[in-house]
Task: inverse folding
C-alpha cells in the first residue's frame, strides 16, 4: 500500500483513540487548563512506557518503524479492543499481516465454489476483500436477491446495504447490521488504504450515503460476529437466521464465506418453502443508476 496514505490513517486512528480516553482512569486529577480531549500525547507515551517523541512522530504521520512490543504496549495504553489492536498492527506494520496486496480480481478455487452449493438449503455467498459477491448459491439469491457484479448497488454487500432500497427493507435491524458491516470493512481493509478500487468504493459510498459517511468517519472497528439477523421476505414473511462469516485458509484466504442458517422451526419451514419457488423467481430491485467508476461528489465534512 502507499506508505504515506497508511501513515496518515495511522495518525488519525491514534489521535481518535487518544481523545476518547478518560484522564481520571489514568489517575490524572481534574483541574488546570486541559484544552486537549482525552489524554495528552506525552501522557499516552508515559502510560505505554515509550518515548514521547516517538509517539508524537506517529501521530504526525512520520516514518517510524515500530516494533511489535512497542505496538502492543501502545495498544494497552490506548485501551484498544482486539479488533482495534489488529487494525493498529495492519497500519503500523503491514509486513506482519499476510493478507496484503492483490487486486481482488481473482476467483475462488473450484472446491470453495462447490462448497457454497453444498451448503444448500442454507443461503451462502462468497465475497472478496472489497466485499464484492463473487459467487452465491440459489438459496442466497432467493433470500437476498440476485447479485450483479457490474452494479455497485447490487454487486457488493456494502453497496447493497447503503445503496439498494431492497436491503434497507428486508433487514429488520438494518442500522445495526449496516453499522457493524462498516466497522468490519474498515478493519478488514486497513492495509489497503491506497487501493484504487477501495478508494473509489469508499468515495462513492461516502458521497451517496450520509449514514456510511458518518459511520466511516467514526473509525469504529469490529471482527465479523456470529449473530442473529431477521430477514423480512416479501413472499414468505419474516425469517430469523444465525449468521456467520467463515474465513478460508491457504489459496482462498482473501475470500470470506457468509452463511445464513435458519434459527427456528418457523424460519426453516419458510426457507424450505422459498427454496421450492420456481428458479426464475427473484426479488425485484429498484433501478439505481450508480457506478463505482463515476466521479464521487464532494465528500461530506466509514455484517
Result:
Amino acid at each position: 500500500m502507499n506508505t504515506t496514505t497508511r501513515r496518515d490513517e495511522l495518525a488519525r486512528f491514534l489521535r481518535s483513540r487518544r481523545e476518547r480516553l478518560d484522564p481520571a482512569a489514568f489517575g490524572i486529577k481534574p483541574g488546570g487548563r486541559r484544552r486537549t480531549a482525552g489524554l495528552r500525547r506525552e501522557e499516552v507515551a508515559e502510560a505505554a512506557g515509550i518515548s514521547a517523541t516517538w509517539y508524537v512522530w506517529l501521530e504526525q504521520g512520520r516514518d517510524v518503524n515500530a516494533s511489535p512490543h512497542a505496538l502492543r504496549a501502545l495498544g494497552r495504553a490506548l485501551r484498544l479492543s482486539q479488533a482495534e489492536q489488529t487494525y493498529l498492527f495492519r497500519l503500523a506494520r503491514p509486513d506482519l499481516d499476510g493478507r496484503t496486496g492483490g487486486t481482488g480480481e481473482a476467483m475462488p478455487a473450484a472446491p470453495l465454489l462447490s462448497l457454497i452449493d453444498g451448503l444448500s438449503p442454507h443461503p451462502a455467498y462468497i465475497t472478496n476483500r472489497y466485499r464484492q459477491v463473487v459467487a452465491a448459491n440459489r438459496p442466497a439469491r432467493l433470500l437476498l436477491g440476485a447479485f450483479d457484479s457490474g452494479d455497485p448497488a447490487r454487486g457488493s454487500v456494502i453497496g447493497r446495504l447503503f445503496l439498494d432500497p431492497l436491503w434497507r427493507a428486508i433487514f429488520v435491524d438494518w442500522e445495526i447490521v449496516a453499522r457493524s458491516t462498516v466497522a468490519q470493512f474498515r478493519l478488514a481493509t486497513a492495509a489497503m488504504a491506497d487501493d484504487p478500487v477501495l478508494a473509489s468504493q469508499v468515495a462513492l459510498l461516502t458521497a451517496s450515503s450520509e449514514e456510511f459517511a458518518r459511520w466511516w468517519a467514526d473509525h469504529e472497528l469490529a471482527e465479523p460476529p456470529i449473530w442473529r439477523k431477521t430477514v423480512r421476505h416479501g413472499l414468505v414473511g419474516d425469517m430469523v437466521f444465525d449468521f456467520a462469516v467463515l474465513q478460508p485458509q491457504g489459496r482462498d484466504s482473501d475470500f470470506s464465506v457468509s452463511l445464513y442458517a435458519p434459527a427456528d422451526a418457523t424460519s426453516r419451514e419458510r426457507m424450505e418453502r422459498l427454496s421450492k419457488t420456481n428458479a426464475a423467481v427473484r426479488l425485484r430491485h429498484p433501478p439505481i443508476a450508480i457506478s463505482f467508476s463515476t466521479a464521487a461528489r464532494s465528500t461530506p465534512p466509514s455484517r
Observations:
- Strands lie at 124-127, 133-136, 227-233, 237-246, 256-262.
